[in-house]
Amino acid sequence: DKLWIEIHILELIRKHAIPTTCCVIMTTSMAPQYESIALMSASIASVVCQSSILGGLLAGWIVAWSLDSVLHRCLIWNIPATMTSLLLAGGVGMVTGVLISPLIPYTQLITEWIRWGVH
Questions:
Q1: Is the dihedral of CA 109, 110, 112, 113 positive or negative?
Q2: More confident: 99 or 8
Q3: Residue 104 CB contacts under 8 Å (≥ 6 apart), including other chains
Q4: At a CB cut-off of 8 Å and minimum separation 6, what does 68 contact?
Q5: Mean pLDDT, the chain, as a whole number?
Q6: Which candidate, 64, 67, 62, 59, places its Cα nearest to that of 20?
Q7: pLDDT tens for residues 85-99?
Q8: pTM of the model as a whole
Q9: Is 103 exposed, middle or buried (0-12, 13-18, 19+ CB in 10 A)?
């Protein structure tokens, strides 16, 4: 019974926690000026990155790059600050997740090859 619990905890960490951590670290290291907005957006984008560290890194990179672009557009279009915050914190992560979701099976495969090569 204890072994079963340990196996499932390790599986949850490998499937969800590690890709999310990679995504958040990538985003916050590339766009530290956005602080909590970057954390929220990266967390949302990482939902689709199951078992894929590379997918998490890709999502984090796209989120960090997109935050500047979306903020710039919001300023140009005179979008109110509250809506801009919602777009940055939720919209960027959601759109990033939708856009990279078709790539995740491939990044999962590459991640597994790297894991297999390391072990």
A1: positive
A2: 99
A3: 48, 49, 50, 52, 55
A4: 31
A5: 92
A6: 59
A7: 999 999 999 999 999
A8: 0.86
A9: middle
